[in-house]
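For reproducibility, we list the full input for the zinc ion complex.
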Amino acid sequence: MRFLAFRLLAFCLAAFFVAPVQAAQLTQFSTIDALMSGVYDGPFTIGEVRRAGDFGLGTFNALDGEMVLDHGTVYQVRADGSVHRMGDGERTPFAAVARFKPEQVIEVPAGLGLEELERFLDQRLPSANLFYAVRIDGEFRSLKARSVPRQQRPYPPLAEAAKQQAVFDFGPVQGAVLGFRSPPFVTGVNVPGYHLHFLTNDRKAGGHVLDFRVEKATLSWQMLDDFRMRLPKEGDFTGADLARDRQQELNQVERHGR
Ligand SMILES: [Zn+2]
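The corresponding predicted structure, in tokenized form, follows.
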């Protein structure tokens, strides 16, 4: 009996020490190609988005501005440049979120531009084939961001809607650039490479990041090795043409104005 109790104790201890580390999850709502094709209304509430994470980005129904999810609060950066806190009852057609727990914090060399920073971080990440949550906090000499205006039905594809984007040129500005680096194989599902949004420290401005130059900032990242995708089971998504290759359009939309 004592032997059995010992075996049981040993088993419990072993189970405790070899218990797998919990995977870090990226939850995505709908797909980037659905958004590209003009699916701008989704069934997902901001409440659902916030339950899946405290960090992330996306947009809102009718493509009404850029979403920044920072420390559990969802902000909307409208095309007029104003920023609003969004309640749990609002909805989104596309969002990507995680629970941010940085694994490494790095000082960013002053003067780095967006593309230089992407290369700087690429050299430090363990692998290009996983997802990463990425955040840059600090002061930027300059930063260029955009937002998209609310659309009316019938919705144009994103390449058309983005032609009406408002571009904001910030001078010296303090804030957080945050988002994801996704592996190359997510083509059609998410944005391969970096997708970053910005919010000023005073929460009064922001947008989808087109470019910046760092003055003084820290960069933090977290590897995400678990991927979850929620899909709309009704509405425009179900009839959208998602067989087309939209990579070229995506590059134009994501990086337009850089
Ligand atoms: Zn964006």
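The CA atoms of residues 57 and 90 lie 15 Å apart. Helices lie at 2-17, 32-36, 46-52, 114-122, 158-161, 247-255. Both points were considered when choosing residues for closer inspection.
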